[in-house]
Amino acid sequence: MKRHLAAALLLSASLGITTPAFAGLSLEEHEARAQTMTVREAYAAYEEWVKKESRYYAEPYAHRVYSLLKEAAAQDERHAKNLAQASLNYGRLLLSVNKRDQAEEILEEALVLFQSQYGNDAPEVIDPLMDLGHAETKFLSGTTGGKYYRRAIEIAEKLEGEDSALVGQLYYEMAEQQLVMGAGKRNLAVGNLKKAYKIFQATLGENHGRTALASYRLGELKKLDKRYDAAAEFLEAAVRVYDSGAPNERLTQRMHTLLVETYEKMGESDLATKHCQAVGRIKEANRDPVETGESYEPLFLAQPKYPVSAQRRGLEGTVVLELTVTKDGRTSDFRVMERYGPDDFVKASIEAARKFRYSARHENGQPVDTAGVKYRFVYSLR
């Protein structure tokens, strides 16, 4: 979010950062190197490893920045704002690497510093409050960061209004954290996600990326609950926006894949076709490796019915089918390549394979048939 970025840029700009380049060190070597660095050097290294998503390597540099600025702030109050941001950066890293006690201690310190520097109800205070809420949700079973989240929401509502995009974003972040980490709090998370979605709809409109992202997450959850009609509605709303603004993104591909599965579960196979083709188009646009043989995996699988006669006799086996994936993402031209077990396994395999849906391979922007695709069926009673 922009509020995160703005605070980080404050520290970066005030220190006059240039980026270092070093790699191939062990964690112990990074820790030793960090101890020799100035604030500027350590912050540059921290930024580098955060960009590379190497949290464990970033941690010693974040700690070094925090430690040096803490010493500096004790001597000169002018360093206090940078110390506040350094504390938040360090606390977040500790949270991400599951160092609970340290993370909570440093984040509490960050909150106090932000309040003293900006005021108790300043927008800058929202970040440490949200991170403390995330920490409580992550580490304390059965809790959901309530007191911190509530206060962050209250500040945002005072600043920008109850139905502002900022409030919607906070509800969205709460929901995401509760879904991932909040044991037994799924209903609460879904409620917060719905609040975020409604606020985004009202303030940003149906075609905004945040609205679409919330719609996607709701569709994903509805699908998990086997509420396929509602899932399709949310996912279609999301994919319309992403097809327009980010047509080749992996998240767009994921939305189309979920819609294939959803429509097949609804018995609406024809509605799945355009999404099979969309996945194939995205793969071609991203120059994904051409899938052949058994590497060409279905988007939707139908499980074969275990033949009753084979089951009664305790028979197990394997069938490898070769088939053609059509330009609609359907299957045809079945051929038995391998078989171990009775003929009933072949019949069951073909019946299941007829229901498979694949991404439709594209050439020069157009869907084409793909022959020679293989799928292995394993029949086991264990």
UniProtKB/TrEMBL annotation:
PANTHER family assigned to the protein according to its UniProt record, in alphabetical order: PROTEIN TONB-RELATED (PTHR33446)
Family matches, as SUPFAM superfamilies: TolA/TonB C-terminal domain, TPR-like
NCBIfam families the UniProt entry points to: tonB_Cterm
Gene Ontology cellular component terms for the protein in this record: outer membrane-bounded periplasmic space; plasma membrane
Residues spanning the membrane: none
Keywords: Cell inner membrane, Cell membrane, Membrane, Protein transport, Signal, Signal-anchor, Transmembrane, Transmembrane helix, Transport
Source domain of life: Bacteria
Signal peptide bounds: 1-23
Residues in TonB C-terminal domain copies: 291-382
Stated name of the protein: Protein TonB
Membrane topology (UniProt): Single-pass membrane protein
GO aspect biological process, one term: siderophore transport
